[in-house]
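Problem statement: downstream parser choked on a complex file, so we are re-checking the raw output for the adenosine-5'-monophosphate-propyl ester run. The parser issue turned out to be on our end (a line-ending mismatch), but while we're here, posting the original submission so the record is complete.
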Amino acid sequence: MLANNTDTKFWDKQATNFISWFSKWHTTYSGSWDTGDTKWFAGGKLNASYNCIDRHLLDKSDRIAFMWEGNEANQNINISYQQLHDEVCKLANAMKNMGIKKHDKVCIYLPMIPEAIFSMLACSRIGAIHTVVFAGFSHNALLDRIQASEAKLLITADAYMRGDKYIALKNNVDLALNNHHNSIAKVVVVDQSKYITNHNHNINWITDRDIPYEDFISNQAVTCQPEPMDAEDPLFILYTSGSTGKPKGVVHTTAGYLLQSCMSFNNVFNYTSSDIYFCAADIGWITGHTYIVYGPLANAATSVIFSGMPMYPDETRILQIIDKYRVSIFYTSPTALRMLMSKGDQALSSSSRHSLRLLGSVGEPLNPDVWRWYQHKLGKDNCKIVDTWWQTETGSIMLHPTTDNQLPGSVGKSTDYMPVVLLDDDGNEISGTGTGMLAIAKPWPSQVRTLYNNHQFFMETYLQCYPGYFFSGDKAHRDKNDNLFIIGRMDDVINVSGHRVGSAEIENVLIEHPKIAETAVVATSHNIKGECISAFVKLIDGCKANSELYSKLEQLINEKIGAFARPENIFIVTDLPKTRSGKIMRRILRDLVNNKTEFGDTSTLTNPEIVNDLRSQISR
Ligand code: PRX
């Protein structure tokens, strides 16, 4: 694979242009997808934090790296590249002094505050591997990720506001760690409650474990030599949902990931030094890693970082931010756009948005009507649209339209250096117009290297389904001009507002309830969220449904995963459609909740009468 010289030359050139190396690589690519052994830029030494900070200091030390806006519009902090350097070094030194070493894992459980970025870069500075857990995850989900990653240190905050909701984050940490086996030795706690005046804080403190962030970094030197890392040293682990009940620890390595973060940010957004960039994602997800932290900072960009809610205090918040900071590049999810769109033109009239020139979208299909609204209404016909397709596993954008090929609903065309193909059910490439499974035909530098502690599962999930291809799990259509259109997931992964949630993860939680005999969870289309979760639940004989049961099930999801994974619909049903071997036919449930009237082949069902029964049970 990748035998041809052109690709090697192409990637050599990119690695030279975009990355500052301590020592140059000797082998551009080696490895094989047969064993899942992928190495890029072997022999090369570099440091991600050096590339995101130090190399800009000579002539851009005063440039603003990011302008932070808190939950309230009057909470603002600007951080220059020099300040970023100093804060990252202080934290890096504090971690080193505590005994955190190269390859140790550090868990970051923080809202969208500057310290989240300092923490990620401080890890990469000393060669520690960060694993960021989205602050919307519950204490159980946090514990799962800590146990799976074997993190030694946890960086968190005491409490924060999300809109008008008080989030007792440290409380979640205590619930996760206290009385549960885990690898965390110390917890560093950022004081965020200082921003909240109208609340009684009741923050529990374990004196020999918990350290205030301010104390942790006080008296630390503002210089810290960046650790020279091997190109293939892991940079981070990020847990994402798949079709099994357990989240997968996606491992990204230093050089390949950093190269494509930097290069794609530059190319896809046609970034120039006069741009102000705003990505309204969260660092807890891959978009935040690549397009809030590593991509923009490696390009010495100036970004807006926002830790509030798009609809708080009202629906004009994002638009106000665009005007206030003169944002020129805006990158968000279709859910956020649909939310704004649903508020009508009135909301738009509150801002000018004159500064915008490029609008990006990520995470879910951007339907043509929303695409047009984005261009005509939000962008006032002054902006190009880039709908970008990629995944946690790809590390960076794989497909995007060019600014001269603007087609509503399309994510652009495949390229020679990252060929994206469509496969039929037998794994044969479809040529020309067609619909099939989206797969990637050649290794690329920012590809996931393995699933942490589970290489076999990595092989089975991505590389062995269709040998010679990297399987994405998505389905797409290609038109006669080679433009690609993403249809959605083909597996049991639900994309709620651009957040991946596995059906099995939710089923595993629901089944814990003593009244529940069986459950099946499927995606349902939703006019704002794109997809939402519908849970079908069969009770144990003799048990009755009541409102308490519904709230208990919701509470279980809140506690075990997080509120963002709460089902929109819970249907208590008498039975589930099953094959003779006892497998639940989710396809039928999916068709039912999406109001389809044709159910395809139902001949393998042992209980075909259930289809009509379920239809009437759902409508009730
Ligand atoms: O189904 C695709 C969808 O999001 C999935 C990846 O989710 P995650 O790893 O959480 O990363 C999201 C941010 C990159 C994909 O398998 N997806 C991503 N981008 C698009 C998309 N679906 C349609 N259009 C997109 N532009």
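For whoever reads this later: Residues 240, 285-287, 362-365, 387-392, 411, 472-474, 486, 488-489, 495, 500 surround adenosine-5'-monophosphate-propyl ester (CB under 6 Å).
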